[in-house]
Design goal:
3-stranded antiparallel β-sheet; 7-stranded mixed β-sheet; elongated; 451 residues
Amino acid sequence: MDREELLNSLTQDILVYAMHGAFPEQEIARSIKPENLDQRFEDYELLLDLHFILQEEVVDFVRSLPKRLRNIRTETESVSRTRRGTVDGHVDWNATVKKRYTESPRDGSLFVCRNRTEDYDIPENIVLKHLLSVIHTTVKEAETYLRGEYEWVQETWKGDEDLIDDLKRIVERNVHVRRIREPEFYEPTERMLMSAEASRQDIYREAGELLRNRESLFAGDEDAIRSLLNQTAITPDDEHALFELFVLFRFVSTIQDLQDSSLQFKTIATGRQEVARLKGEKEIILYHDNSAADRDLSFVSDIPDADDRVLSRTEKVQEVARSVASRYFTDRNFQNHTGRPDVIVMEVIDENNNQNEYLIAEVKNSQRLDTIRKGIKETAEYLAFLRINDEFVFGEPDTEEYFGTGWNGLLVTQDLESQTMSLDNQDENEIKILQASELETQLGEILENII
């Protein structure tokens, strides 16, 4: 699966699930945010605004503000005020005579004065003020990163740190900007946006266009979402997180197809890993990252087993990893290596029979044989050392059956050019291996054996 196919698939997944309020948006944000950003940017809307301000058009708009604000539009209106004993502005003698005649015929100290005032609160300025507020707020949140040595800002704010100070100075101190009232929560309205877009002045026309762009991003416009995924400003360099998110979506859609029911999605909060839950005769729970700690699931290695005549779990992992890799790649042989990353965990709870089943899925966005063999070993480790309430899930010390039924472990890889074994021929393997293009048609068979 190449980058284009991955982005197209994820775009559709986000449209189908996240933008209709089903899949937790924080899970998407967590997967596509630059890895150096802190947890604030796991808020989906804040991440979208970060993407928004990193666009070249937004940076250019901010850069042109100092000159353009000198010609900001206002409307002038004449205001009449009645004064006694003093004159404030131009005396309107006709109005003064009428006022004296009707109210105080003998009061020579009464004057009607006219003053011209500038009104900044025109529709175009409300649009401008809202845009500046969005940019300013997001820049404040991300200022540390915008001033830092991060690749995803090299072509935008990086190298132009004065621009951040200029923006803060404009929003916080510029006389013209400060005289524009703060927009109401429902503003700018559609009519205000149309007024800005129809303006002859570039500052208003561009402000309207940029806010339309932001609206499309938040509304789930397909082109806007694809742009979000495609921008190096948002996508982690190695694309592994995007590939893992793609696999997670395949789990979601396949479970729903098998059960003919909708999953109940969970909002991802700090310290929680549960993504989705389906209740029925059997309860299905899907976790992402950090080993499903919500359910007291853990992966902790054991010390060497006491009986030297039986392989320890650690030794058995090495043996199985080498064996599965050698059988799967039918034209190669391997030696042992080590390592392990994050996983997707599916838990099936059968309360009627007091049984739980588990599927541990490792994801490798790679075609390199060494990386895939490393993934095989890591998946075997997860199965062998899977514990719930500190008790091993699979196998007893004297059985060496540490890997479940053969359907409890899954490794997902990128599509490979090497000669490999089909799923139908992997019956003897302790774990199963699927390539990206096989998920749509074959993941269901694996899940059926667990559910």
